[in-house]
Design goal:
Blueprint: H1 3-71, H2 73-78, H3 89-100, E1 108-112, E2 118-121, H4 137-143, E3 150-151, E4 155-156, E5 163-172, E6 178-186, H5 187-195, E7 204-209, E8 214-218, H6 233-238, E9 244-248, E10 255-262, E11 268-275, H7 276-279, H8 281-334, E12 339-343, E13 349-352, H9 354-359, H10 373-384, H11 390-405, E14 410-414, E15 420-427, E16 433-439, H12 441-455, H13 465-482, E17 486-493, H14 496-503, H15 505-521, E18 528-533, E19 536-541, H16 548-567, E20 570-572, E21 575-577, E22 581-588, H17 595-611, E23 616-619, H18 622-644, E24 647-656, E25 661-672, E26 676-678, H19 684-688, H20 692-710, E27 721-725, H21 728-731, H22 736-743, E28 754-759, H23 760-764, H24 767-778, E29 783-789, H25 796-801, E30 806-809, H26 811-815, H27 821-836, E31 840-843, H28 849-858, E32 862-863, H29 874-878
Parallel strand pairs: 22-23, 25-27, 27-28, 28-29, 29-30, 30-31, 31-32
Antiparallel strand pairs: 1-2, 1-6, 3-5, 4-5, 5-6, 7-8, 7-11, 9-10, 10-11, 12-13, 12-16, 14-15, 15-16, 17-19, 17-22, 18-19, 20-21, 24-25, 24-32, 25-26
Helix pairs in contact: 1-5, 1-8, 10-11, 14-15, 18-20, 20-22
């Protein structure tokens, strides 16, 4: 086809496309205008939905606060009087005044009899207050068998001459008589809730009953609405309408959008209405703009079509010139000794030479003009990375493309056949790229052989002294900059000379090879294992803790792991050989030190181990060695203490408010043969670092259960509860439940006398597993208590799902009673919450009579602390006053 004919056909295509585009634009604008109208209505509905939902939430919150105030009136009046009787009218009114003062939504709260007479009120007049309630209002509140909130119609208050609502809930008097708790709520309070956030012009808001009674309207035009004009919501919704519908607005009756939602009380609905004219006000102006823009774009399309046809004529001439240039370029590229690929600014292949096909023969079928270079890389990855999955190959390609965008210098690629290809990438001004590929295999092999001879041990392949010193110098500098310490371990094999003398140097070399393999396997990739010569090895540990003691512990653990590995038998030919090593350790990174000085310190420490007959580790710092040794010795002594039965239990009594002892908490003591009787603070931390705490915890539970069993015929102690603290590590042990069930197997029905105390953090860690374990033990009768309650972040939802019996108020709150008001509020809240959840509350750390009296005033019934008894042996506990029947049973 001739160039002129091709250009003519292209022109016809352009003008046809322009016409179709204009037609589509007109159709799209028509659809857009219709869609904008629908969107305007949807936005109006969404605004109504958001506003009504917010109003509903505000009304529910307001009514619910008043409901809670009324529902708690009886408990407010009874909790202040011993025996559950009611206070006097004056005292009750004072209580109501303090309670009602916290709720700004009500003007007053009063308790009335069935005849409407005031028995007590939060009003300053107290029981002398004259209250005029709507007819039958008290009767409606008392008529329901279940106490519910009753709301009156708007009524004019006699005292203030303003519109108010009365809310009431039935309650029982001290002798079981029916009374009502009544609250007066100004209508302006609900009007404020309805108008809060109402920024929608023309909005009509109504709080109404389903049968059509309007309680509150904004704007207040209820008196202008004629009966029968606005249909009740019950009729509207019964006719099949959804909570959002199009129809007459609830106040003015205009055509518009209406949204209604019920609130949680007394068939009350809150509705929002928006007239249609207001809802579509913005749509009229927007549709005019759309029409004007459509006309402008149509003109622009015609103009673009004209200029594009002119451009097509010029591009035809350019193509002919480009074909001539390409032929010349192809001749030059085929003469290159390096592989060559040319990419355009879209990273597509424009050209490549024959040398590229020779270097990468598996890509011959893939290379095509305009193929995406990403596909070329994916094909190369599939060939060169056969053991990596598709996701891994894609990641390799993305990394390769990212480095290509920021190409600086050269990179090398190692092929499966062992060849090394050097890749040079150069960006072009138009965004394209020239990539050349050079085969540098022979040069790299020669370089690698030279480096190996210079820096690595020829026997083991480990870094030699030269490379070690270089890495150690860099590591010390990096450690001082990052703040993370490092460690240098100097290892010398024990009795290696004897092996060489008796079995020959070949066996010695075989042992050194296996030692090198074990050392490499025992450290991380970031660490270095080097051989200095003979049987001397150096291990450099990087990126340890920034704290010196913790870094030493980490070094100790690695050292012990390496020594244990070296102790395993070696197979040397047909002979089995046993060998050990001596390790000297020193830390670096705190202060500038030379590599030679660090090696000297580690060597000195190693010879200290040699002096102690080897097979051990020693730190260069004597004080640090002492600290770590003491910790290790303490853990060793703890293991022996379990075997020698050096642990004893002390008991701190727990008391009821009537003066009877109801139980005791067991507290662990260690009767150390040299240091005497030790409190838990001296050894529990060391036990919790290992599984020793599990064995100790099992012993405590078994001993406590045996004590319960021994008390069954003891009249003073038969009903005592014993509380045992459980550590997190013990509770998470796989056999915890089985061990506890084994311990209580002999108690029979007396298993309920064992209480396990858990901390808040332990309970909230993996809640599902915690609940499952607690229910398994609860089914056997074992009780649970949350220790130190209030110091964590307990969720009420989790708290209610746990099979608990008791909350234990932390002593930090008890200590500040009468001193810090916030702690008093926390204690009252814990006691109130426990009462609502039907849980016992025990306060620990009670040390003064004033603290105990505060707790009694707040309703706490169980106590523990030095005021009532210090931890004591079991014999002293049984000698206390006789036990009376109590809630502990």
């Amino acid at each position: 086809m001739s160039p002129n004919r091709s250009v003519k056909r292209a022109n016809l295509t352009v003008w046809g496309a322009a016409g179709l585009f204009i037609l589509g634009l007109v159709v799209a604008s028509s659809v857009l205008i219709a869609s904008m109208r629908a969107t305007a209505l949807e936005d109006a509905n969404a605004q109504l939905n958001r506003y009504v939902s917010a109003a509903e939430a505000g009304l529910n919150r307001t009514f619910l606060n008043v409901d809670i105030l009324l529902a708690s009136t009886a408990s407010t009046l009874t909790t202040s009087v011993q025996g559950g009787d009611w206070p006097t009218a004056a005292a009750g009114s004072a209580l109501l005044a303090r309670t009602a003062r916290l709720n700004l939504a009500v003007r007053f709260v009063a308790v009335v009899d069935p005849q409407g007479r005031v028995l007590a009120s939060s009003d300053p007049r107290g029981a002398d207050m004259q209250l005029t309630l709507p007819a039958d209002f008290v009767e409606r509140a008392l008529a329901s068998t279940v106490s519910t909130l009753v709301i009156s119609a708007p009524t004019q208050s006699v005292a203030s001459a303003e519109e108010v609502l009365y809310l009431a809930r039935s309650l029982k008097g001290p002798r079981g008589e029916s009374l009502a708790a009544v609250a007066e709520m100004p209508e302006s309070v609900l009007t404020g809730v309805l108008t809060q956030g109402a920024q929608i012009p023309g909005l009509e808001v109504v709080l109404e009953k389903g049968r059509g009674d309007f309680l509150i309207a904004v704007p207040d035009t209820r008196s202008a609405v004629r009966p029968g004009v606005i249909a009740p919501l019950n009729e509207v919704l019964a006719a099949g309408s959804t909570p959002v519908w199009s129809g007459g607005t609830r106040l003015s009756g205009q055509q518009g959008q209406v949204f209604a939602r019920p609130i949680i009380y007394d068939d009350l609905w809150v509705s929002g209405s928006l007239p249609l004219g207001i809802a579509l006000a913005g749509w009229h102006s927007d549709s005019t703009v759309v029409a004007a823009v459509t006309a402008a774009f149509s003109a622009l399309i015609l103009l673009v079509a004209y200029f594009f046809t002119q451009y097509l004529r010029r591009i035809g001439h350019a193509r002919r010139a480009l074909a001539q240039s390409k032929a010349q370029l192809d001749q030059a590229l085929e003469a290159m000794i390096s592989g060559f690929v040319l990419l355009d600014n879209q990273q597509r292949v424009l050209h490549w030479n024959q040398r590229f096909d020779e270097l990468f023969p598996w890509l011959i079928g893939m290379m095509q003009p305009n193929v995406a270079f990403r596909k070329v890389l994916l094909a190369s990855a599939a060939h060169e990375l056969p053991d990596i999955d598709e996701a891994g190959r894609s990641g390799w390609v993305e990394q390769r493309l990212m480095s290509q965008k920021n190409a600086v210098g050269s990179l090398e690629e190692k092929l499966l056949d062992g060849r090394t290809i050097q890749i040079l990438e150069h960006g072009l001004p138009d965004g394209g790229m020239v990539i050349t590929y050079h085969d540098v295999t022979d040069m790299r092999r020669a370089s690698a052989e030279i480096e190996t001879l210079a820096f690595y041990d020829p026997l083991t392949g480990l870094p030699n002294r030269r490379l070690l010193l270089d890495r150690l110098t860099q590591a010390t500098t990096r450690s001082q900059r990052s703040g993370q310490l490092g460690a240098l371990l100097f290892l010398d094999l024990d009795q290696f000379k004897t092996l060489n003398d008796t079995m020959g140097h070949e066996m010695g070399d075989a042992l050194l090879l296996q030692v090198a393999q074990r050392l490499r396997a025992g450290v991380r990739n970031v660490d270095t294992v080097a051989r200095l010569g003979g049987d001397e090895f150096v291990i450099m540990l990087n990126d340890l803790s920034g704290e010196r003691i913790e870094a030493a512990k980490q070094t100790q653990r690695v050292s012990e792991k390496l020594l244990a590995s070296l102790e395993q038998p070696y197979l040397l030919g047909t002979h089995q050989h046993q060998s050990t090593g001596s390790l000297g350790a020193t830390l670096f990174g705190e202060a500038p030190q030379s590599a030679g000085e660090l090696l000297r310190q580690a060597d000195i420490a190693m010879y200290q181990v040699k002096a102690r007959r080897g097979n051990g580790v020693c730190f260069f710092d004597p004080q640090m060695q002492t600290t770590i040794s003491d910790r290790a010795q303490l853990q060793t002594d703890l293991k022996s203490a379990l075997v020698r039965q050096e642990f004893v239990l002390y008991y701190q009594p727990q008391w009821c408010n009537d003066g009877s002892m109801v139980g005791a908490e067991v507290l662990l003591r260690w009767q150390h043969p040299e240091r005497g009787l030790l409190a838990p603070g001296a050894f529990i931390a060391a036990a919790e670092e290992t599984d020793l705490i599990v064995g100790i915890g099992e012993w405590v539970i078994y001993t406590a259960c045996n004590q319960i069993e021994s008390w069954k015929d003891h009249p003073q102690c038969a009903k005592l509860q014993i509380s045992v603290n459980v550590s997190a590590r013990q509770f998470r042990h796989p056999r915890f439940v089985e061990n506890v069930l084994d311990a209580v197997a002999g108690l029979g029905s007396r298993a309920h006398l064992l209480t396990l105390e858990l901390t808040e953090s332990m309970v909230l860690d993996n809640v599902d597993e915690t609940v499952a374990r607690m229910h398994q033990l609860r089914a056997r009768g074992i009780r649970f208590s949350v220790d130190d309650f209030g110091t964590g972040y307990s969720s009420l939802a989790y708290l209610t799902s746990l099979p608990l019996h008791q909350l234990k108020i932390d002593q930090s709150f008890v200590r500040n009673l009468g001193v810090r008001p916030t702690d008093e509020v926390i204690v009252q809240t814990i006691i109130g919450m426990a009462r609502n959840l039907e849980l016992e509350v025990i306060a620990e750390g009670v040390e003064t009579e004033e603290q105990k009296q505060h707790l009694l005033d707040y309703g706490c019934t169980f106590f523990q602390g030095y005021l009532l008894g210090r931890p004591m042996p079991v014999e002293a506990l049984c000698a206390l006053q006789p036990v009376q029947d109590s809630k502990a049973e």
